[in-house]
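Let's practice the habit of predicting before peeking. Look at the sequence and jot down your guess about where helices and strands might fall. Then scroll down.
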Amino acid sequence: MSATGRALLVVDVQNDFCEGGSLAVAGGSEVARLISAHVEEHGDAYAVVAATADWHEDPGTHFSDDPDYVDTWPPHCRIGTPGAQFHPDVRPALDRADGVFRKGRFRAAYSGFEGHSPDPDTGQPLATWLSDRGIGAVDVAGIATDHCVRATALDAVRHGLQVRVLLHLTAGVLAETTARALDDLRANGAQLVGDPVVRTGPTA
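Done guessing? Here is the structure:
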């Protein structure tokens, strides 16, 4: 199969990463709404839509009671909790999702390419799933620009995909780390479209 199709990757638009969640990013709820509007308007441009999700049971030092918001974080997206569920405003977009890739059950996992579907431990990896569907290019959206969106986009480049990061459909944790992430993405060949939502950092 020729790898000519384009996929939309919706990264970690979960309740815990939106306002009111345990690791909320300012602008997360708006991003959820904007992604659904984007899929409503541009969904026909995509051969497939895939979503990624943190799915933590015991990720070790990824969780901390005294987090530094760089390598350690407050507990979030625990399996079976409301915080691990997708935000209600992104559900219209994910009603069209062809696969959900969960990651990080027993360790930190930032990139969607660490996820598997349908089972987070034994399912098909995202890279294989995209290849099987003839995907040669991806648009990346979601939360957070400077962490999981960045890691997912960089891994997509490493897997030989053409990558666009739809910054107007992302929210960053901090302006400083978002700026570094954008420099990193540019330097590695990702195309950046629009401007990221960056407000006041973590809201939790």
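How did you do? The radius of gyration is 15 Å.
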